[in-house]
Amino acid sequence: MMAGNRILHERVALARMAPSRFVRPQQLISSTVRGAKSMSIPAKATLATVGSHAAVRRAIDVRIRFTDGFSTTARVFTFNGLIDGREHLLLALGNWEQYAPNSSQQSVTAPLARLHSECLTGDVFGSERCDCGPQLRESVETIAATGGFLLYLRQEGRGIGLYAKLDAYALQEVGLDTYEANLALGHGEDERDYTEAAQMLDALGIGSVRLLTNNPDKTRQLTALGIDVVEEIPTGVHLTTANARYLTAKRDRTAHTLDISSARTRT
Ligand SMILES: [Zn+2]
């Protein structure tokens, strides 16, 4: 249980505050780290306090099939009001309707959710430089088994974009790791922002999730936005000889919970 009374207290406190200008959670976190006393930014901000609710625009059922034959039906949600203006998707999988606020079969547990950041090279072309394709494939099946949500976020290359990601690959060829390469290009180590993910969950009335992740930053940001992460469920380690350096950098640089030494290497 990572949420509980603390979150409730913060929500009550925030509910009494006047809505402030929109503030992204990363700004909140960095302003806290810097201890910028002059800034009138609350330590935490929910979607309610920042006035950034989104609404479901349309939902459409799509039958999906992976190259290994696994198939399922996803209800694909689109939205109005996502604050960065990009076309993010929420895929509702399995028996997800039990988690809808007005469901007659209301579940007592929180739904599984996965925040997947778009990776064209890994998701579509099966690039072996990263583990995005296998992560996506695994999470769809895991979520479909119990019901829940896969959020497909259009923030390629940890938020720096596709071309910059490929530029970073070139720097990795000469010895930089994935984070050092982003910094060398003038970007942050990881520029991803999960505000739109929180907006999409909020639009469906989902206030708490069991998050499929090895990345503590996702939990930190969602929690800051008022989505309770009641449990973190680690994803598998998809180790190959080609992505070993990449996975090691994720573990060592940004505290991803990856047990690489015990993972079997695929070739
Ligand atoms: Zn990738």
From TrEMBL:
Database matches in Gene3D superfamilies: GTP cyclohydrolase II (3.40.50.10990)
Pathway note: Cofactor biosynthesis; riboflavin biosynthesis; 5-amino-6-(D-ribitylamino)uracil from GTP: step 1/4
InterPro entries the record matches: GTP_cyclohydro_II, RibA, RibA-like_sf
Catalytically driven reaction(s): GTP + 4 H2O = 2,5-diamino-6-hydroxy-4-(5-phosphoribosylamino)-pyrimidine + formate + 2 phosphate + 3 H(+)
The EC number(s) this enzyme carries: 3.5.4.25
Cofactor list: Zn(2+)
Residues holding Zn(2+): 119, 130, 132
Similarity-based family: Belongs to the GTP cyclohydrolase II family.
Protein name: GTP cyclohydrolase-2
Organism classification: Bacteria, Bacillati, Actinomycetota, Actinomycetes, Mycobacteriales
Gene: ribA
